[in-house]
């Protein structure tokens, strides 16, 4: 009797142990939990009750249904878990998570709401994941798929090229609808872009319109791809098909986004160039190509980073590598970095504009171009100076192009034996010439008999030219000088030059060499009036004189 009882106890105990073994699953780490969930839903190891153990206890009334739907969501989105990258550490910590550090997100970019977390020394799918399962399932497998399957009941399980008939019909309808969306969105996008462009610059620009037309094309293609990306999972292809299809779709979407942003850069630069053409500041014109290159490089960099993430490269690793490489490059090219900073400071402070005449150190000339690294200055002898922008940002710059007027000061030396009446007439005539000159400020000038030089009587001429252009200033000087020379000639006033006069008063039969001046007031007034009238009647043209020479 005792033996029978003992035997019955051992049989019962072994049944309990075998029953426990049959339901035991490993949930000690993220790798084990994810593997348990997916392994027991495969066709050759289908045990949904064991797969449901990965669901947080008491989080749902039907954990089996939740586990099955969760797998279908991953399959429909083509999200393939690479178990070689899943951590096996029971105490795995995500350093980017502050509130819940002990959690693992398999797809942080595409499915951030699906993740496992540690609860009481075991890893389960989180409560947030379970709460989002039904919503995600309805997005991946919407109601119209069931309708489509009901339309073709006679073709159930019939396939062509491995594709069921209802799936093939769904593909045809999807691509037809996508083409329709592409055609309609292209028209709408171009119309909207034209309205936005016109509201910004209030001018129709053919060049901008062409760029907008090119921009509308990828936008419409992107909308069509987004529709395909949204609907394709509901066609319930296999995980392998979905994985490669969505990889291709994501690559195409990324390329289209890159193209769109590149065209947006072109549009923004064309609009900005429209504004710069309306301003007198030519430095803004130089900023257009610099900004275009900078924004284009930024778009290509971010687009390349996105493409790398699609192929499984961790973006954090890429950014860290770029940061380290950038630091090393910066250390190796400190001069280039300093020049780039100097370029930024020049565009922010605007110490000069394109075309300004500047004096900085030993360099004097006209600013022709401001680049990323250096500024090009053309000297008066047409030679070119390339000045590093880092130096320009530090040294003193005398910008004569920012003057309100260009001041010109000179002294006219006339002979000592010039009669006072002619001196007065000459000074008055020069004043009249300054007032009559179209390029001088008639309200601000000085023409005065200021002193006695070593060999001449000094007459100061201080005038202000209106034009800030160096070439215009020189031609204006030329015109004023020619009028002054003509005035002196008709008055009989001669300009002095350094000389020494020896006067011998008692030398026999020698006469004085005194100049003969006409001091008749009527003649003086007539001569001055004649020169002033000629100055008015015959405008000076520098180009005509050069051609004549």
Automatic annotation (TrEMBL):
Domain of life: Bacteria
Main location: membrane
UniProt membrane topology term: Multi-pass membrane protein
Signal peptide start-end: 1-19
Domain Mechanosensitive ion channel MscS, chain residue ranges per copy: 335-399
Key word Cell membrane present: yes
Pfam families: MS_channel_2nd, MS_channel_3rd
Membrane-traversing stretches: 165-194, 215-232, 244-265, 311-332
Domain called Mechanosensitive ion channel MscS C-terminal: residue spans: 410-482
GO cellular component: plasma membrane
GO molecular function: mechanosensitive monoatomic ion channel activity
Swiss-Prot/TrEMBL keywords: Cell membrane, Membrane, Signal, Transmembrane, Transmembrane helix
Family of the protein in this entry: Belongs to the MscS (TC 1.A.23) family.
This protein's name: MscS family membrane protein
Lineage, highest ranks first: Bacteria, Pseudomonadati, Bacteroidota, Flavobacteriia, Flavobacteriales
């Amino acid at each position: 009797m005792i033996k029978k009882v003992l035997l019955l106890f051992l049989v019962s105990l072994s049944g309990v142990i075998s029953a426990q073994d049959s339901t035991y699953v490993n949930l000690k780490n993220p790798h084990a939990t994810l593997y348990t969930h997916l392994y027991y839903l495969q066709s050759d190891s289908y045990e949904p009750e064991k797969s449901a153990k990965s669901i947080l206890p008491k989080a749902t009334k039907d954990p089996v249904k939740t586990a099955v739907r969760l797998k279908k969501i991953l399959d429909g989105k083509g999200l393939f878990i690479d178990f070689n990258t899943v951590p096996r550490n029971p105490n795995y910590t995500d350093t980017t998570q502050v509130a819940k550090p002990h959690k693992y997100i398999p797809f942080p970019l595409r499915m951030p709401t699906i993740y496992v977390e540690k609860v009481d020394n075991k890893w389960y799918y989180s409560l947030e994941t379970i709460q989002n399962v039904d919503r995600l399932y309805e997005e991946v497998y919407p109601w119209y798929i069931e309708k489509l399957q009901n339309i073709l009941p006679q073709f159930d399980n019939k396939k062509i090229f491995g594709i069921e008939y209802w799936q093939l019909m769904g593909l045809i309808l999807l691509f037809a609808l996508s083409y329709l969306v592409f055609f309609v969105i292209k028209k709408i996008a171009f119309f909207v872009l034209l309205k936005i462009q016109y509201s910004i610059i209030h001018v129709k620009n053919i060049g901008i319109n062409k760029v907008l037309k090119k921009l509308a094309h990828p936008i419409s293609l992107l909308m069509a791809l987004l529709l395909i990306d949204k609907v394709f999972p509901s066609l319930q292809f296999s995980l392998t098909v979905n994985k490669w299809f969505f990889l291709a779709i994501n690559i195409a979407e990324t390329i289209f986004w890159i193209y769109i942003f590149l065209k947006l850069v072109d549009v923004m630069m064309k609009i900005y160039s429209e504004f710069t053409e309306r301003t007198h500041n030519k430095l803004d014109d130089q900023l257009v190509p610099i900004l275009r290159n900078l924004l284009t490089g930024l778009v290509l960099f971010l687009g390349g980073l996105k493409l790398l993430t699609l192929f499984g490269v961790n973006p954090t690793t890429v950014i860290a590598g770029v940061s380290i490489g950038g630091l090393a490059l910066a250390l190796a090219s400190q001069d280039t970095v300093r020049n780039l900073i100097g370029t930024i400071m020049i565009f922010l402070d605007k110490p000069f504009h394109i075309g300004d005449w500047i004096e900085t150190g030993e360099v004097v000339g006209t600013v022709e171009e401001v680049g990323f690294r250096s500024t090009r200055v053309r000297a008066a002898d047409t030679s070119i100076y390339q000045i590093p922008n880092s130096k320009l940002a530090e040294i003193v710059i005398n910008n004569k192009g920012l003057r309100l007027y260009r001041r010109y000061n000179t002294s006219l030396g006339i002979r000592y034996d010039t009669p006072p009446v002619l001196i007065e007439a000459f000074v008055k005539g020069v004043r009249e010439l300054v007032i009559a000159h179209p390029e001088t400020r008639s309200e601000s000038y000085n023409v005065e008999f200021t002193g006695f030089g070593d060999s001449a009587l000094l007459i100061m001429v201080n005038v202000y030219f209106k034009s800030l252009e160096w070439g215009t200033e020189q031609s204006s000087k030329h015109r004023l000088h020619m009028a002054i020379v003509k005035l002196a000639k008709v008055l009989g006033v001669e300009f002095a030059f350094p000389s020494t006069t020896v006067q011998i008063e008692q030398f026999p039969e020698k006469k004085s060499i005194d100049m003969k001046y006409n001091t008749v007031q009527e003649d003086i007034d007539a001569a001055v009036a004649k020169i002033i009238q000629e100055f008015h009647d015959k405008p000076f043209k520098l180009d005509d004189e050069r051609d004549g020479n």
